[in-house]
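Q: Please design a sequence for this.
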């Protein structure tokens, strides 16, 4: 596999000379190089009973797509929002929360999975890879900007923490779990405040 990627350029370099992955491989001690089998998989089952999965446990992306860690963090925030909104934590409520989490995150994971597969196809040297590269090079810059902006605008927020003010130049896309769980938490806070006021 090292031979297949040696020619790929990497950012940086030394003495004004661009580096390739081959340069990095040559400078790395052989005992530190290991082969990792990359498996791409999008599972359809993410939860059962009181067990729920997130990140690579339910969607494994090729690193070429650069979506794995980001998607896992977004999964974690959405799941945390739903778990925090559970009260009291009855088995039926847990199932509803996990279903809401899945319904929110699965379509996004599916889209990221397709993007990851497309990006991983660009690495090869076969005819299909060359066709994909050629297609991507011809995408107009305005469309490319739009495609690349969408993941950046999706900024999750935890509904159980003070909301972060949006100071960006583009409107932020908030996740559904924020809008669905925030009213639940606000209602609970009001009920607890009333209860505390009565007890005083």
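A: Design:
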């Amino acid at each position: 596999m090292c031979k297949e990627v040696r020619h790929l350029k990497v950012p940086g370099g030394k003495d004004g000379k661009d580096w390739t992955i081959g340069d990095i491989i040559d400078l790395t001690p052989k005992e530190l190089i290991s082969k990792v089998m990359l498996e791409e998989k999008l599972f359809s089952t993410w939860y059962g009973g009181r067990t729920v999965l997130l990140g690579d446990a339910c969607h494994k992306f090729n690193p070429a797509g650069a979506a794995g860690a980001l998607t896992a963090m977004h999964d974690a925030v959405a799941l945390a929002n739903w778990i925090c909104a559970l009260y009291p934590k009855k088995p039926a409520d847990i199932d509803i929360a996990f279903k809401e989490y899945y319904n929110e995150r699965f379509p996004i994971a599916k889209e990221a999975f397709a993007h990851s597969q497309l990006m991983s196809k660009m690495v090869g040297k076969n005819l299909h890879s060359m066709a994909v590269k050629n297609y991507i090079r011809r995408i107009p810059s305005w469309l490319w900007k739009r495609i690349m902006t969408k993941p950046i605008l999706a900024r999750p927020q935890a509904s159980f923490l003070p909301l972060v003010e949006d100071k960006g130049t583009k409107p932020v896309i908030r996740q559904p779990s924020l809008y669905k769980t925030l009213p639940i938490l606000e209602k609970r806070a009001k009920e607890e405040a009333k209860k505390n006021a009565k007890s005083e």
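Q: Thanks. Anything notable?
A: Residues 65 and 119 are 5 Å apart (CA to CA). The chain has seven helices and six strands.
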